[in-house]
Write a structure and sequence with these properties.
Rossmann fold; about 20% strand; three-stranded antiparallel beta sheet; six-stranded parallel beta sheet; alpha/beta
């Protein structure tokens, strides 16, 4: 039975790298993977999924109006699809998450969504909330705070490097605009120096990610 997966994390945890690697694994075995990315994400080329380490791939674009089930069903008429990958899944609507569930349930194609869980104010994105509610498999992609603890929160910074507490939920940006923090230092609005506790980092990054 095909399943709907949600791989979630804080910012800059390597979600796109994992997505592209998983897609490549399918393609390497002669299978077809279908990739989608959000129209909102214009950090590089629109319609391209790219990672911080240089991996990239073209992808179909989705906005809030696209019926993902209908789109994937149409693509399926042209060629077999073995897996569907969704980048920036926090930008999905609740309806689109249910459409992806239908892809897994009725078209029998596994769907792997990758995205943030919460925004810079600690509030859930609509797409992430729906995925956490109905996805078959939840996987946390781990990253670390400057202190060495697991980072679960995202802070937004202005041009001077100061933490921003108000503003629109969606402001596209990368490392220059966002930083991942543990809950303690996110609550304190505290940025700091990298930890010297290498054992703590290893423990965090080596923990199992499946729930």
């Amino acid at each position: 039975m095909a399943k709907l997966y949600f791989n979630f994390s804080a910012m800059n945890a390597g979600k796109s790298t994992l997505l592209l690697q998983a897609s490549y694994n399918y393609q390497e075995r002669g299978m077809r993977s279908l990739l989608f990315t959000a129209a909102l994400d214009n950090r590089t080329k629109v319609g391209e999924i790219s990672s911080r380490i240089g991996l990239k791939s073209d992808a179909l674009i989705y906005d809030t109006e696209l019926d993902l089930f209908a789109c994937i069903e149409e693509q399926l008429k042209e060629q077999q699809i073995n897996a569907v990958f969704i980048d920036e899944a926090q930008f999905l609507t609740e309806d689109q998450v249910w459409q992806l569930a239908r892809v897994a349930d009725h078209l029998r194609i596994p769907v792997m969504a990758y995205g943030l869980r919460t925004d810079f104010q600690g509030k859930m994105f609509p797409g992430s909330a729906a995925l956490l509610a109905i996805a078959d498999i939840l996987r946390e992609v781990r990253t670390i705070c400057w202190c060495g603890s697991k980072a679960t929160m995202v802070a937004r910074m202005d041009e001077s490097g100061n933490i921003v507490e108000e503003g629109d939920q969606v402001v596209i940006g990368g490392e220059e605009s966002y930083i991942s923090l543990c809950r303690k230092h996110w609550s304190m609005r505290k940025l700091g120096e990298p930890t010297e506790n290498k054992d703590a980092l290893a423990d965090i990054l080596c923990e199992p990610v499946d729930h």
